[in-house]
Backbone:
């Protein structure tokens, strides 16, 4: 198991190298002079030359690349022009907000989509199957920022059930002492149920928005793989042996249908991490997505580059995790590897 | 399945194609609906600016933020601009961005993939490596990075949307070209002395073409969503240009104070367009590839 894990870890290296090269190329080879860009509109030729030297842009490209890699190895992603703070610190301090939102969205989406997919497969052709199809088609057609705004209008303005879509916590509350950075968990550790409820209330709408967006692929895949498993011989045998339909569907069928489902999670994460940026903008969520959007508008490139790199590294790590999970769920993969 | 005798004698060429299309559409009326919507979108994109009741850029401070009424069907925004006119006029820009990016990736991904699948070896390794590297990024995030690096313009939105779809097209084209490399008709062409380049362009490409066209209509919806998402966060299209994503962004502030119509109508237009292309893509796939019909 450990050897397999190591072997799988090694395959990540070329991907990471590719990711680092692409993020490097994003600033260096493309048209436009970064030095002019960093110097700002009021730059003199002298100041541009100074900046070029200080950024190392007078060096040949391979040398610049080595310098970039060296900086990365030291955890240096450059400084944000707007705030003057190191990009790394900003990203690290904002990452828990994004992670909490994304994971919450994913969990909500799985809790809804998996039972829906199972029911749609078990009762194929019934109203629940049609609901599943409509949800799946509508889910991929809805722009995620539009869903978010609709939910805000409905639950905040019309019904008044949700708090104003402004960040992670109402201004009346203080953030719980940081342990994990997840307000839901930290408030429980600190023993403050009131803060827990307040942050949950803020989290529900953006989380639901993300969930609606990622529902479609999960529900569709659950249905398809359940249908395939349900028509297989071993399910027929299990039914013929008189096992209860619950045992057949959950223990026999669903456990086998989970495999393709886990593979889809990789794609779902790609969607979620991208949609996260838009949802954070709609709900003024102080995560890394809204940090990147602010930097984009201000043409502040270092944070954007750091953000793209962080997201890509996280995505690679998530895919690795999915692969490992696959091995845990399916012992055959472990044997073959 | 119908009896073999019941199948009408095959008409030749175009007529048969038309009959087959009608058969598939009749079997799935939703495709017909999607086609109707598509025609509507096309009309709006082509003649939109000439049929709208108001100038989409003209502001009128006397009628700011009016809810939908007889004069302004979709209401007016905070500058008193007619939202109906803006939504209709925006169709052209959104449609153009989507078509241009899909056409671009069709060329880039299609050609690279066909070359990779046909030649194999180094070509294959390079194309596959590029595709893998792009796939290592969350796609929308990569698109943001590309637009930020290349510069904030509509052309770069088109380019970024094309690049993030590259792996999909390259992989499909590669697989399709690969299975045809040793096919009988290719061997025959090779034996009759055709050059490799000629085989690629005259034998392989025409066969891969229909599959990629279906892929184009399937990714159109995604391309529109992606472009609208980028302009929603303030990339590419600048206000006051009418574009659905940016109009939703402008209406976002009004949602909290209850003026729902500013964001709702452009959002709905966006949704309907994406919905239409997704359905159309499914329908087109049914026509070209009956095996995958569901």
Residues:
């Amino acid at each position: 198991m450990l050897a397999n894990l190591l072997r799988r870890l090694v395959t990540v290296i070329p991907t990471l190298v590719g990711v680092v090269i692409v993020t490097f190329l994003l600033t260096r080879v493309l048209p436009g002079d970064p030095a002019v860009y960093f110097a700002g509109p009021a730059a003199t030729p002298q100041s541009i030359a100074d900046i070029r030297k200080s950024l190392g842009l007078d060096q040949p490209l391979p040398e610049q690349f080595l310098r970039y890699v060296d900086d990365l190895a030291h955890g240096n992603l450059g400084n944000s022009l707007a705030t003057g703070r190191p990009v790394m610190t900003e990203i690290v301090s904002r990452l828990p907000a994004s992670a909490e939102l994304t994971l919450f969205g994913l969990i909500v989406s799985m809790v809804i989509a998996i039972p829906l997919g199972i029911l749609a497969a078990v009762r194929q052709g019934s109203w629940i199957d049609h609901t599943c199809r409509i949800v799946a088609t509508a889910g991929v057609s809805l722009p995620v920022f539009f869903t978010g705004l609709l939910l805000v209008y409905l639950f905040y303005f019309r019904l008044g059930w949700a708090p104003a879509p402004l960040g992670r916590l109402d201004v009346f509350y203080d953030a719980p002492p940081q342990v994990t950075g997840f307000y839901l968990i930290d408030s429980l550790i600190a023993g403050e149920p009131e803060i827990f409820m307040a942050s949950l209330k803020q989290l529900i709408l953006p989380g639901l928005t993300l969930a609606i967006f990622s529902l479609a692929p999960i529900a569709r895949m659950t249905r398809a793989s359940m249908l395939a498993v349900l028509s297989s011989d071993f399910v027929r045998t299990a039914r013929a042996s008189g096992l209860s339909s619950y045992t057949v569907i959950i223990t026999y069928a669903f456990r086998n249908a989970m495999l393709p489902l886990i593979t889809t999670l990789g794609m779902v994460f790609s969607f979620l991490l991208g949609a996260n940026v838009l949802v954070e903008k709609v709900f003024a969520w102080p995560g890394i997505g809204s940090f990147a959007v602010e930097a984009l508008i201000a043409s502040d490139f270092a944070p954007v580059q750091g953000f793209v790199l962080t997201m890509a590294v996280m995505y690679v790590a998530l895919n690795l995790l999915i692969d490992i999970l696959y091995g845990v769920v399916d012992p055959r993969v472990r044997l073959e590897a | 399945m119908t009896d073999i005798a019941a199948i009408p004698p095959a008409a030749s060429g175009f007529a048969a194609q038309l009959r087959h299309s009608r058969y598939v559409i009749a079997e799935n009326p939703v495709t017909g609906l999607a086609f109707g919507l598509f025609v509507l979108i096309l009309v709006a994109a082509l003649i939109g600016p000439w049929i709208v009741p108001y100038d989409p850029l003209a502001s009128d401070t006397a009628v700011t933020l009016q809810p939908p009424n007889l004069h302004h069907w979709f209401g007016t925004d905070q500058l008193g601009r007619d939202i109906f006119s803006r939504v209709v006029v925006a169709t052209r820009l959104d449609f153009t961005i989507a078509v241009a990016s899909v056409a671009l990736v069709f060329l880039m991904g299609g050609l690279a993939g066909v070359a990779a699948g046909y030649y194999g070896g180094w070509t294959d390794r390079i194309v596959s490596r590029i595709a893998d590297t792009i796939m290592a990024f969350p796609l929308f995030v990569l698109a943001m990075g590309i637009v930020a690096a290349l510069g904030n313009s509509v052309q770069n939105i088109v380019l970024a949307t094309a690049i993030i779809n590259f792996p999909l097209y390259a992989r499909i084209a590669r697989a399709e070209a690969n299975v045809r490399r040793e096919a009988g008709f290719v061997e025959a062409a090779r034996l009759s002395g055709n050059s490799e380049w000629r085989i690629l362009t005259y034998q392989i490409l025409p066969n891969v073409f229909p599959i990629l066209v279906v892929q184009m209509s399937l990714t159109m919806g995604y391309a529109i969503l992606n472009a609208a998402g980028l302009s929603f966060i303030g990339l590419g299209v600048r206000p006051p240009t009418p574009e659905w994503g940016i109009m939703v962004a402008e209406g976002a502030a009004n949602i909290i104070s209850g003026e729902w119509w500013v964001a709702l109508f452009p959002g709905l237009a966006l949704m309907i367009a994406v919905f239409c292309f997704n359905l159309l893509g499914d329908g087109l796939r049914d026509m070209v590839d009956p095996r995958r019909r569901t």
In short: Chain A is about 75% helix and 0% strand. Chain A has a mean pLDDT of 82. Chain A touches chain B through 52 residues (CB under 8 Å).
